[in-house]
Amino acid sequence: MNKKKMIRLTALVGVATATGVVAEANQAHAATTTTTETTNQTTNASVESTQAAVDAAQSTFDTAQTSVDNAQANVTSASNNVTSASATLSSAIANKEAATSENIASATSAVSSQAVVVASASQAVSEQAGVVSAAASVQASAQAEATSASASLSSSSANVASATSALSAAEAALTSDQSTAANNLSAAESAASSASAAVSSGQAAVDNAQAAVASAQAIVDAVAEVQSSDVINMSVAYITALKNYLANPSSANEAALQEVAKGADYVKELQQKFKSDASLDVVVDPSDPTVQEALSVYAVNLINHLRNQYGLTTAFGASANANVAAIDFVKKYYDDEDWNIFGTTGSDGKGHNKNGLDAYANQLNTSIAEDAGSGLTTWVNGKATMATTTLHNLLYAVYSDIATMLFDDGGTNNWSHAQSIFEDGTILGTGGFNNVYLGVAFDKYGYAHYELYNATEGNHLGKNAYSLDVLTAAQALLTNAQASLASAKASLQRMTTNLMVAKAAVVAAQNQLAALENSSANDLVAVTKARTQLASAETSYQTALATYKQKEEALKKAGDNLAAAQASLEAAQATLATAKAKLAELEETVANLTNADQLLAAAQAAYEQAVANLTTATGNLGAAQVDLAKAESQLALAEDTAEQAKVRAAIAAQVDQQLNGSTANDRQSAGQDATSLKTNGRALTATVATASAAKQKQGANQGRLPQTGNDDQEASTMALVGLGMLGMATGLYGYKKKRLTK
After folding, report:
1. How many CB atoms lie within 10 A of CB 209?
2. Using alpha carbons only, how large is the chain's radius of gyration in Å?
3. Separation of alpha carbons 447 and 346, rounded Å
4. How far lies 581's CA from each of 15, 109, 120, 594, in Å?
5. pTM above the 0.85 mark?
6. 336 membership: H or E segment, kind and range
């Protein structure tokens, strides 16, 4: 509650009064000093008196404010009571209107019906309480049995632990020496078994090495035979026709070449010239380095023989590096990618893996050409079947593939294989084949791949070159096999010696164990007894464990039953509580209908009383607000009076200071002292001048009165004293603003 009140008090000083004050300035200095002291005492007492009045007015204001706040709270409470009483009265009126005999009879009937429901629900609660009590008894019994079973299980477990400890002690006594001897025997037997297995393995290695020597010897004999006999010879007419076609692949030249070559019939004729020898029917691994060497040398010799007939002086070479590159390429771009070059019928294959050839050529930084043939596969009724991998099969595959390459393949290949064999410096029109090395590899489908690489110092494909004498390569295979056989025989001899030593150690360990058996008979009896006791303890433990599990299960079941019974009891209690609440509601309805007249009269009286209370509270609030306004006005007046008293005291003190600081000798000197006073919102400056003794009378006559509208006003010393005394007499000076907030 905020209020602002301004009180403006103005002090006017007449000219005549001011003149009288000026005249009094001619009095003696001693008299003046006494007057100012009296004035100071008076003004100080006035300040204290007015401040006490302010404190009293503030206390009165605070009390009035508290009364207003309390009265306002009472009005709010009375208003709320009127609202509540009004609602109660409306309800009572509605209840009176509904209080017909029919409604009372209906409500009374509903009470009777609900009482039956409550009785039934109460009976259900009693019955379910009995069920809960019985279930709790069963659960308590099950808990006791489970506790007993747990104790029995703990006891049985302790017995097992004790029996186990006893057995461990007995076994430790038994096995202190006997165990060592048994371990020694076991180790000796294990060593003898390992030595025996090593001997068997060594004998197998010798047998395999001997078979390898025999196989290598057969290869040497067979290769020596085919070295001179397996060559392919071309007729002069064929060579001439082929040269004409390769120089100018016209239709006429191709027809002439086809006529001379005789096509597939002549291929069969060449294939039939391959020398078949029973000594070649030995099983070999196509990826074996020695076999790879023999195959690549064999293929290069066949090709170089053909190139010589064609009139070329540059020969193809064979090397281990070229063979390794061929095997790596075929595995990566045919086997790993499931790339079947011919397919299952010879016409449904994927053909050459050109992307793989480009990638591998970039990898090796060289030029690569690829020829492919049926290899280990023969064609029967248009379907491919894998043949047995023998040296005969491999050599025949190479011989047959190269012979087939001499003729038209048909389709888009035409005479491309022949071009790859007979071109010099280029292959199929691609340059960069000035130093050709051949690598041979077989893919997982059995097809043969002939990779033609241009060897350079940078790619090292010509390194580790093979001698083109097939017999030398075959002889190296035999030498390696013989060295392996000798190594296997030496290893077998060492293993046989180790076996004899191991068997002797077994006999010694057996004798040591037999010697200890007689001395450990008592320990053995103790071990047997301990084992029997442990078995009995374990049996008891298992029985106790089964009983414990059974009792725990029964306890869980009893707990579940008790929980279910308690849940049912709680549900029945909830139903009973709901029925009782409904009954109380119906009974209250009957009571309200039966006593409708009394309830209405009471509600009407309560409403009227609430209205009367509100009227009284409103009147009290108005009276308290009037008292607060009065107290606020009195407080503002008291504060302004106190402020003026302080101003007068300040002026009196200033005058006293000026007079006490002057003497007869120094009044001849002029001095000025400025004192700022706050009057009517502006600064009022008083200037005091001291005159010489010779000019006192003139100075008294020439004293200046205050000038209206001027902030800077001057007065003589005595004039200021007179003004101060006048202000004390009137009690009015300046004006004061006061903001009161509560």
Report:
1. 21
2. 68
3. 11
4. 95, 16, 15, 20
5. no
6. none
Task: Round to the nearest angstrom and report the end-to-end CA distance of the chain.
Answer: 5
At residue 364's C-alpha, the angle toward residues 362 and 370, to 5°, is: 80
Crossing angle (nearest 10°) for helices 15-23 and 717-730:
130
Q: pLDDT digits over 465-501, tens only?
A: 988 876 666 677 678 777 887 888 787 777 788 777 7
Q: Which two tokens stand for residue 483?
A: 């060295």
Structure tokens at 566: 């308690």
Please state, in angstroms and as integers, the Cα–Cα distance from residue 349 to each residue in 367, 376, 445, 584, following that order. Answer: 25, 16, 11, 97
SS (H, E, C) 444-469: CCCCEEEEEEECCCCCCCCCCECCCC
Asked whether the beta carbons of 693 and 668 are under 8 A apart, the reply is: yes
Which of 679, 742, 659, 681 has its CA nearest to residue 25? Answer: 659
Structural tokens at position 15: 């000219």
Half-sphere exposure of 2 (CA within 13 A, CB side): 1
For 467-534, give the DSSP string: PS-HHHHHHHHHHHHHHHHHHHHHHHHHHHHHHHHHHHHHHHHHHHHHHHHTTTHHHHHHHHHHHHHH
For 588-608, how does the pLDDT look when each residue is reduced to its tens digit (9 = 90+)? Answer: 999 999 999 999 999 999 999
- Report d(CA 708, CA 38) in Å as an integer: 30
Three-class SS state of 14: coil
